[in-house]
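Wed. Picked up where I left off yesterday with Protein kinase domain-containing protein. The coffee machine is broken again, so keeping this brief.
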Amino acid sequence: MGYNSLNNFCLVKKIGRGQFSEVYRATYLLENTSVALEKS
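Structure written out below (tokens, as returned):
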């Protein structure tokens, strides 16, 4: 599934961290669904 803009997400909580990235629980606002986002 692809998303076109980060403006459509609300970060909820950081749920993980690795050596090169962080993972966040977020809400995809257009569908009101929970997703995981990785920030490098």
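Quick read: The CA atoms of residues 21 and 40 lie 4 Å apart.
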